[in-house]
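Subject: Protein record for review, amino acid sequence with backbone structure tokens
Category: Structural biology, sequence-to-fold work with a learned token vocabulary.
Format: Residues in single-letter code; tokens as whole numbers, each standing for a residue.
Body of memo: The sequence and its backbone structure tokens, given next.
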Amino acid sequence: MKIGITGTPGTGKSAVCKILKKYYPVINLNQIIKDKKLYTGEDQQRNTLITDTDELIKYLSNYVKYWDVKKKTIFEGHLAHYLPLDVCIVLRTSPYELRIRLIKKGFDDAKINENVEAEALDVIL
């Protein structure tokens, strides 16, 4: 079974997956994007990579099509919902709480505002 854990950055994906990792394999999509160079460039303003979602889907679709359906695997990342999954769990939090978390993580104001707005407007859904 392929399970996705997705949500706006700061909603708790990594915290949840840290617990789940004790019981199931967890694939961190951000790490795969970096390691396999599945991006088209870097957004300097947001200090983030621009993911090539087509290449990510192609890479992971090839990876997961041979996956044992009885083996539960977690795919962690805010792009997990793009993958061919059996189940996708969307984590949510209040925009107020999200702002506090992102400030603690050191996000800049523009990125904080963008993610808080995305969470408030249900963009991930």
Remarks:
- The mean pLDDT is 90.
